[in-house]
Design a protein that fits this description.
By secondary structure, this protein is α/β, with parallel strands linked by helices. The protein has 16 helices and 22 strands. InterPro entries: Amino_oxidase, FAD/NAD-bd_sf, Flavin_monoamine_oxidase.
């Protein structure tokens, strides 16, 4: 073998980015093992209605310092979503549409807090939820807002908190650390750039150079093994290699393994997955960083029944109406917070839901979910609602390959004092430092005969210091681990010359 054997676990954005970067560096013994029957991970574009939908990652979030944007915009793949998530109607559960001037003032109150958060949360000792609650009701008490009905304001704020939970992937904003919220860096520019009628999978094709090479997986052809669930990683062998065992009985022995699985998978499987068990610091990072679930609901109608300029609606539950469904089989509907239009899908409404009810929804029969959604439409909207002709939901929590959607910083993260940086730290073994095929180099590659070899590495969005929960964070994490190996073998200084594998 001409180069070290590297096995990447997971073919999501981070795994694909890592693999393609390793190939760019000159590593040629690279393979990805994937538990699912498809590539993409939490990028999952499928045909639906008039073109495609994204069950997972949907938008390129921002432009400046966003490598997804930098790669995609030159190919004219992105388009602005516009003001869909700002101009929506606020509709009460008695079908009353909140007057636009009132709903806009309520939206302005919560949007104004976006500006002050960056300064005020630095000294916050509590949760994002307590901070936002104080800001919202403090603004309502101002004289200029005295005419706003407090019942409507409360209903609006309850809905807004669900929206914020969907951004964070939290069950409740009381779980979200106020200080930890600031660890996320928002890229400047349009934060809701969509992929037109192509879907996010088009970005994976860019990474793999699929269009350029005119093959499905581009440079990764014959390097991805599907339906390979990893069940054991033995990383303390005498030969300084790592053995990966799969559920189908296959085994791989590699010089390095790079794990790009979700934090949800690590939380569930870490005690069974690693032999020996992970160091305490790594276990604390996996336990302490938070990982939640956000789900989508897509409903296709035979024709558009809403006005052309209507962009969607959010559901403001009156106390007496929400009491009617709590404690019933339809209680899960409380956390479906809105349905929105998509100009690339003119007959489609897409809904969002969060938390424990979102996880519960995944366990329900499809016809029961659809019946619940139609109940919402007919309870909140004044129009005649036709029967839908197509329906699809995401199921990120019940899928054992993911166990949720994306990571955030919780109050527990703050309490245990861990970070993405600790999660990203590789597991090392002490080994003889590699020599570049016995050939002299321009400068001595190593000054000592022994070094710490990164034998198990960690990537994925949850390992990103500041871009967690995003595709660009996942990709940068994959690149980071590829660069770590390139630096370890001196490839950044030695023209891609590689040592021979131990195997």
């Amino acid at each position: 073998m001409s180069s070290p054997k590297i096995v990447i676990v997971g073919s999501g954005a981070s795994g694909i980015a890592c693999a393609t970067k390793l190939l760019d560096y000159g590593f040629d013994n690279v393979v990805i093992v994937e538990a699912e029957s498809r590539i993409g991970g939490r990028i999952h574009t499928i045909p639906f209605a008039d073109n495609v939908i994204d069950l997972g990652a949907q938008w390129c979030h921002g432009e400046k310092d966003n490598m997804v944007y930098e790669l995609a915009h030159k190919h004219d793949l992105l388009d602005s979503t516009g003001d869909v998530y700002e101009s929506y109607q606020c509709v009460r559960s008695n079908r009353e549409v909140v007057p636009e001037d009132i709903s806009q003032r309520l939206k302005d109150i919560v949007n104004d807090s976006l500006v002050t958060r960056q300064m005020e949360l630095r000294n916050c000792q509590g949760s994002l939820g307590s901070y936002l609650n104080n800001k919202f009701y403090e603004a309502l008490r101002r004289p200029e807002n005295s005419d706003i009905d407090m019942a409507i304001a409360k209903e609006f704020f309850e809905n807004y908190k669900k929206f914020e939970n969907s951004v964070e992937a939290s069950d409740t904003l009381d779980d979200v650390s106020g200080k930890g919220y600031l660890e996320y860096w928002e890229c400047e520019g349009d934060i809701l750039l969509n992929w037109k009628d192509k879907g996010y999978v088009e970005f994976l094709r860019l990474l793999m150079r699929s269009r350029e090479l005119k093959t499905e997986w581009g440079v990764l052809e014959k390097r991805v093994l599907l339906n390979k669930k990893v069940t054991r990683i033995e990383w303390s062998r005498n030969d300084c290699c790592v053995q990966i065992r799969c559920a189908d009985g296959d085994c791989f022995v590699a010089d390095h393994v790079i794990l790009t699985v979700s934090l949800g998978v690590l939380k569930e499987q870490q005690l069974m997955l690693f032999d020996p068990k992970l160091p305490v610091e790594k276990q604390r990072a996996i336990d302490g960083l938070a990982f939640g679930t956000v789900n989508k609901i897509f409903i296709e109608f035979p024709q558009q029944f809403w006005p052309d300029k209507w962009t969607g609606f959010t559901m403001l539950w009156r106390d007496e109406d929400i009491a009617d469904i709590r404690g019933t089989p339809r209680a899960w509907l409380e956390d479906v917070f809105g349905f929105y239009c998509d100009h690339n899908q003119p007959r489609l409404l897409s809904g969002w839901m969060i938390g424990a009810n979102g996880r519960h929804m995944e366990t329900l029969p499809e016809d029961e979910i659809l019946a619940g959604c139609m109940y919402l439409f007919r309870k909140f909207l004044q129009w005649d609602i036709p029967e839908p002709c197509n329906f699809k939901t995401s199921t990120w929590y019940t899928n054992e390959s993911f166990r949720g959607s994306y990571s955030f910083r919780s109050m527990y993260t703050e309490e245990v004092g861990t970070s993405a940086r600790e999660l990203a730290q590789p597991l090392h073994v002490v080994t003889t430092k590699p020599v570049l095929n016995g050939e002299p180099t321009v400068e001595p590659l190593y000054n000592q005969s022994r070094c710490d070899k990164p034998i198990v590495q960690f990537a994925g969005e949850a390992t990103s210091d500041h871009y967690f929960s995003t595709v660009h964070g996942a990709v940068e994490a994959g690149w980071r681990e590829a660069t770590r190996l390139a630096d370890f073998y001196g490839m950044l200084r030695n023209s891609h010359k590689l040592p021979k594998s131990n195997l």
